[in-house]
Specification:
The termini are far apart. This protein has two domains: 70 residues; 56 residues, no CATH class. The chain is mostly helical.
């Protein structure tokens, strides 16, 4: 029987160790590069999300401004109509009674969406945005927009201010 001398056996063990070490080092380097690439991609996605959310908030502010201007014009128009007609406008109903037509606010309340109404109520109570999102099923951007649109009202009732965090 040929027996392998101790020196050759030791050399073979060293070569095997070196090969295993090289394989492990290569795998570690590859994993580190992948983590770095994923980190860059995550940063890019977070930056894009931040820009989208900032755009949504900007649009919400513009919408709020336009809504307030429209409301002021509606009030002015209603007061001009009331001044022209000394008697209030009424509607005949099936039961024979004469009633005032519904106001713009009443019509808007009838057309309201339950999840938005619920979110508005929760935000006025000071519930955190994350909790509102979980309870209503709205997106975070929608909840923040509702909070922004109702900010002056919530300031009167002690609600929290709009906070946006990008992590």
């Amino acid at each position: 029987m040929n027996s392998i001398p101790d020196a050759q056996l030791l050399l073979l063990a060293f070569a095997g160790s070196a090969l295993i070490s090289l394989i492990l080092l290569t795998a570690w380097i590859r994993a580190r590069r992948q983590r770095a690439a994923q980190g860059r991609q995550l940063f890019r996605v977070q930056s894009e999300l931040a820009m989208i959310q900032a755009g949504n908030i900007g649009l919400g502010k513009k919408l709020l401004t336009i809504s307030r201007q429209l409301e002021a014009q509606m009030v002015e128009t209603e007061s001009l109509r009331a001044a022209q007609n000394s008697h209030p406008a009424t509607l005949d109903t099936d039961d024979g009674f004469r009633r005032q037509p519904p106001s713009r606010r009443e019509l808007m309340a009838q057309e309201g969406l339950p999840e938005f109404d619920q979110a508005q109520m929760l935000l006025r109570q000071g519930v955190a945005i994350d909790s509102v999102v979980r309870q209503t099923g709205l997106t975070r951007s929608e909840a923040e927009l509702i909070q922004l649109l109702n900010q002056p009202q919530m300031a009167d009732t002690g609600g929290s201010a709009l906070t946006t965090s990008f992590q």
